[in-house]
Amino acid sequence: MVKTGVKPVADSQVAVIQTADYGRIVVELYPNIAPQHVERFKKLIDEHFYDGTAIHRIDPDLGIIQGGDPQTKGGNQQIWGSGSSPYPNVPAEFSDILYERGTLGAARTQDVNGANCQWFITLKRQAAFDKQYTVFGKVIDGIKNAEIIMTAPTQPGSERPADKVVITSVTLQPRSSFP
Questions:
Q1: Deepest of 66, 70, 87, 103, by most Cβ within 10 A of its Cβ?
Q2: What is the pLDDT of residues 66-124, one digit of tens each?
Q3: What is the DSSP letter of 57?
Q4: DSSP H/E element including 167
Q5: Which residues, at least 6 apart from 81, have a Cβ–Cβ distance to it below 8 Å?
């Protein structure tokens, strides 16, 4: 099922993704569009789940950066991208919101209901993702930082950054602090 014609309403809190070397990325969240995804994201933020993880995938061709995998806290890069939270997967909450520059989406397995803790930000229009991946927010500050991350060098033949892009913390802050 796809939610159609619903205008996103920003949550009273934003997620502030602070990186070690690239500044911050602030995303507003849309609980009226994807209530279960926003609830999971906020729960994991409250538990400091994302602190110390890394952006493990950058793909300038697709125009995305991806993070949220707890496996990235360790050094075995072969398993980066395969991690989950201790909680069950979150069912898809598709909408007709388009994947445009700055959209926050839920990464998932091949199963449309396979989203858990990983997320991605699109940095250019990505029509192939529309109604295929859950949209649950949008970047409202720091989009340039996300774009710089997307253009960072990758390891040969991979989408892994050559130098680890560390997320020092993700915190919830009042939406009103970010006009």
A1: 103
A2: 999 999 999 899 999 999 999 999 999 999 999 999 999 999 999 999 999 999 999 99
A3: E
A4: strand 165-174
A5: 56, 57, 66, 69, 71, 118
